[in-house]
Amino acid sequence: MKDPGASAKWYEEKLGCIPLFVEEEAVTMRISDESSTVICLVRVENHQPMTFPENQFGVGKYYNFLPADIEAAHQLLTVRGVRVTPIDGFGSTKVLTFFDPDGNPLGMCQY
């Protein structure tokens, strides 16, 4: 992250993540009250957005959130000013990509 504090504010305001550990160089956040998963936002020099290795499966993101209603989640992200792609899908699976302030791609899937 270029600025962990600014990124933490974005993750809290846009995604509802909860700060647990805050320092100038790093912030650890819980994804939600119900989740035991945390994310670590760490300052790095010369940040480059994450890129997923090319593959034959069509996967392009390291992290995916699983909303109960992807259409409602898409609308909420849009209203909150998050850069988000249109919902795409195959079969009964629906997916979207959105981007954090540093341009890192994150995903949502609904199966």
UniProtKB/TrEMBL annotation:
Gene3D superfamilies: 2,3-Dihydroxybiphenyl 1,2-Dioxygenase, domain 1 (3.10.180.10). InterPro entries: Glyas_Bleomycin-R_OHBP_Dase (IPR029068), Glyas_Fos-R_dOase_dom (IPR004360), VOC_core (IPR037523). SUPFAM superfamilies: Glyoxalase/Bleomycin resistance protein/Dihydroxybiphenyl dioxygenase. CDD domains: VOC. PROSITE patterns: VOC. Residues 1-111 form the VOC domain. This is VOC domain-containing protein.
